[in-house]
Amino acid sequence: MVTRPLLVFDGDCGFCTTSVRFAERYVRPRCAITPWQFTDLEALGVPQERAAYEVLWVTPAGTVYGGAQAVAKALMSAGRPWPVLGAVLTLPLVRVVAHGVYRLIADNRHRLPGGTAACAVPGRRPQGS
Known about the structure:
Oligomer: single chain
Low-confidence stretches: none
Helix content: 40-55%
Largest sheet: 4 strands, mixed
Shape: globular
Number of helices: 6
Strand content: 5-15%
């Protein structure tokens, strides 16, 4: 059981790891942060395919947010000015755009700085995301 929010990311991906380290240093979300490879995904009710597909925010109540909405939740948990940006990402129209931008980045993370072949995401969207 999660006692505080948990941010789950792909620890095999250099781009993801660099992004999380940036968030830890500058955003400082109020959560535990862990690679999915070292997380009991079954206990969280999250399939491995989903964890490999997108970053996850898991609440203590067990609600799982993925992708851009996980980023929004992490931003909203941080100190100022980040919660404002996180809240904006949850607005209906912005949410759609944020999802598209997130997918574009996630689908191409192996091509971004720090990315390697290990960063490539699975080709299809997993169930539950």
